Amino acid sequence: MTETQSTQPESTAYDVVVLGAGPVGENVADRTRAAGLTTAVVESELVGGECSYWACMPSKALLRPVVARADALRVPGLSRSVQGPLDTGAVLARRNSFTSDWKDDGQVRWLEGTGADLYRGRGRLTGPRTVTVTVTGAAGGRRVLTARHAVAVCTGSRARLPDLPGLDEVRPWTSREATGAQSAPGRLVVVGGGVVATEMACAWQALGSRVTVLVRGESLLNRMEPFAGEMVAEALTEAGARIRTGTSVKSVTRENGTVLVTTDGGDRIEADEILFATGRAPRTDDIGLETVGLEPGSWLAVDDSLRVTGHDWLYAVGDVNHRALLTHQGKYQARIAGAAIVTRAAGEPVQAEEWGAHAATADHAAVPQVVFTDPEAASVGLSLAEAERAGHRVRAVDVDLSSVAGAGLYADGYKGRARMVVDLEEEILRGLTLVGPGVGELIHSATVAVAARVPIARLWHAVPSYPTISEVWLRLLEAYRDA
């Protein structure tokens, strides 16, 4: 793709133009191309996006050996075989393989196999239905892409750093550096108490770092049920990490390679690296939102078909709409948005009612998440506090997972807990949270129950296999019945 010799950049018309080639943008393109719409995808970095190279895949590749070893240590007859430290070099090499060494050739082949046209470069809106691409590589120049039906913004989010003087000179880690480091720092300070903070603290502590976690609030994982953060904190502490709650960073400097952290309480902590896992910001600051009347750098408000408020041609899918900053939820939104774009392009009515084909209803009712620490924490739907704030009349039902036969077989001394939140008026589940080894594989059954609003009376007839950890469903239902 080369620029013409004229003074005006070359212009090409498509049915759909997608900004961003991460999992969300790829899925929008896949759905529109499958329906026969011509589609262009613009990407300024690697095709495959944050998830493939700096988030989901590398972080879980780092954590899998950590969790597998922890599980093995709890099984007599196997535990003696896994004594000693992890082979950090081998773990990092395996991580590198899951990122394809940060090369996107395979992802490019997949995207081009859908029939979409890929433009590498910086894409910006330059008016309604118009994207101008500053092309990188040998082609260079600029290309103007116009969209007959839709532009989909799928540019994701980036790590948000605090406003601390001189932070750039410190060269702090964000989630990208934490998942991509090629060696374990001797001492690592992690600032934050959410998913990235807990997962990376778990991974690097096991890989040889001495980890200190600084949490501004009073607990870890404060968007889940309180016991989730408590149990993860207990396990991290037992593994050797130090966790300090109610602590903020007042200043940070780097002197002779050493990071010096001063807390709001006046304490000084030395480290080799510092990771700030203090939230996310939308990647919308330099995509030309001002040319269509929107605020640069803002989260984009959308309806349930993922169409941006006040713009009948513009869609915001995935992290940029701030509904649920999770890859699986963004891909779900992409399927909804792609179907809505195709339907509107055909001039057919959109099914935007609750649970309709073009409504991302699950964003409101049944968002699942797994934190891949040891122990794992998994949840879907509303916590007890969230359900009460929403005005539902609910009851929490708690079960100790050690009472489940399958948990005892899974590991000696199994520690875990489950809570289901029951709507007492509708007799359905509003949410479920599980903490314990291996519980991440159980959360989809709960997601089905919450999303489908399965009545409690009917769940009695969904018989869990014995002896598996999924028998927790029976224990929960029994506890609800007998209360």
From TrEMBL:
The keyword Cell cycle does not apply. One of its GO terms (molecular function) is oxidoreductase activity. Keywords: FAD, Flavoprotein, NAD, Oxidoreductase. Residues 14-328 form the FAD/NAD(P)-binding domain. InterPro entries: Class-I_Pyr_Nuc-Dis_Oxidored, FAD/NAD-bd_sf, FAD/NAD-binding_dom, FAD/NAD-linked_Rdtase_dimer_sf, Pyr_nuc-diS_OxRdtase, Pyr_nucl-diS_OxRdtase_dimer. Its cofactor is FAD. It comes from the Bacteria. Coiled coil: none annotated. Gene3D superfamilies: 3.30.390.30, FAD/NAD(P)-binding domain. Its EC number is 1.-.-.-. Residues 367-473 form the Pyridine nucleotide-disulphide oxidoreductase dimerisation domain. Belongs to the class-I pyridine nucleotide-disulfide oxidoreductase family. This is Dihydrolipoyl dehydrogenase family protein. The lineage of its organism: Bacteria, Bacillati, Actinomycetota, Actinomycetes, Kitasatosporales.
